[in-house]
Amino acid sequence: MNCILLPKNATSITEPTQITHIKEVLKSQVGDSLIIGEIGGKIGKATITSIDDHEVQLRDVTLDKNPPAKLNLTVVLALPRPKVLRRLIMDMTSLGVNKLIIVNSYRSQKSYWQSPLLNRMDEFVFEGLQQAIDTVPMLVEFKKLFKPFIEDEFPALLEDGEQSRAVIAHPYAMQSWKSYLADAKNKYRMPKVLCIGAEGGWIDYEVDLLCQYGCTSVSLGERILRTETVVNVLLGDWLKA
Amino acid sequence: MNCILLPKNATSITEPTQITHIKEVLKSQVGDSLIIGEIGGKIGKATITSIDDHEVQLRDVTLDKNPPAKLNLTVVLALPRPKVLRRLIMDMTSLGVNKLIIVNSYRSQKSYWQSPLLNRMDEFVFEGLQQAIDTVPMLVEFKKLFKPFIEDEFPALLEDGEQSRAVIAHPYAMQSWKSYLADAKNKYRMPKVLCIGAEGGWIDYEVDLLCQYGCTSVSLGERILRTETVVNVLLGDWLKA
Q1: What domains are defined for chain B?
Q2: Which UniProt keywords apply (chains A, B) (predicted)?
């Protein structure tokens, strides 16, 4: 938690995890300064005027810095095992992904859709924002039907209809991400959509359908990586673009 | 577990986690083929001849493929909270890091060094290898004294004594990783050593000492990322180099 995210016009902190962080990790005292952000707004500072178990009061709230820019990127993610979802959401948020669309895939087990963790997206996004010192939540949507989503909604994500502005990470793709990236950078543009499979990857049918709707299939090489690792390895290239 | 890693000349599997994986995840039957690797050796296949709770027997063991190349990279990591160590070790292993040196740092709490997880490095490396279909373990060393390690042993990691062949990830560095990387790539060489801090980063004294011994300090930008995220974001650039 590198900043404390607060609702608009807040002059005190009542969220238990934030209070615990201030007391136990930061070990802040009355008179200390805190890095704060306004949800959806600017970043700044405030001074602590009182601390107890239920509330931390603030004065001199100054919000004067814009949050870091978001990546011009929508991630389409096959629903993974719920236990990895928290870290995935946090990482994507902290890396600045604009929008996340979680879709069903052949290898997403039906039980995953029943997980109570799916109702906790806002909380995981919030954690990612407070990690990265950002204030603007990543948008998260769920699409339980893969084919209708790809056929009816996916093309609009590419908007300008340009080819190859969407990539699908697939360990067995012929083209390497490296060569794709070199080409994209030469053209001064990164893909606007990145599709990432869950454990076990996409099945051929899914890869084919995505490619039919404008995706280019790319591989990171021989090593098979965990979903979380792939996400960070790939998103790093938008961060550095 | 994308391959089952076995000792040299093994014709059966007796490791409980591997047997559970074969039975419950792969749902393999007698006659099915398995992707296997010989620890430190080649990768190949074998056919299952019997499965019970304590042993999976194999025939036609064929080891004919070299493991993927390791990255020419040593990571120097400040000892993080033990609970993140397993994933960090797995990820670095699966991404192909050659050697990991875990050092003490100002922000590594003393209690971290007492964690029983520090005795389980081999197990975490093994998991990373089986994830990535690799067979050659990442070397892991511990250095409990930061200053003597940097002064006496760090320079040898750079071997050829070239400047700027080591980088330290530091959120407040002046130079961006992107500009450093562009320069490194123009010279057809990536740094041989990457130093990554734990939660809260390196303190100034540590950054200064590392820089004095040949490191260049680089930043990934405004966003403050978790250690695990930084590791994957940066290592991706060696993977793609």
Answers
A1: 4-65 (2.40.240.20), 74-240 (3.40.1280.10)
A2: Cytoplasm, Methyltransferase, rRNA processing, S-adenosyl-L-methionine, Transferase
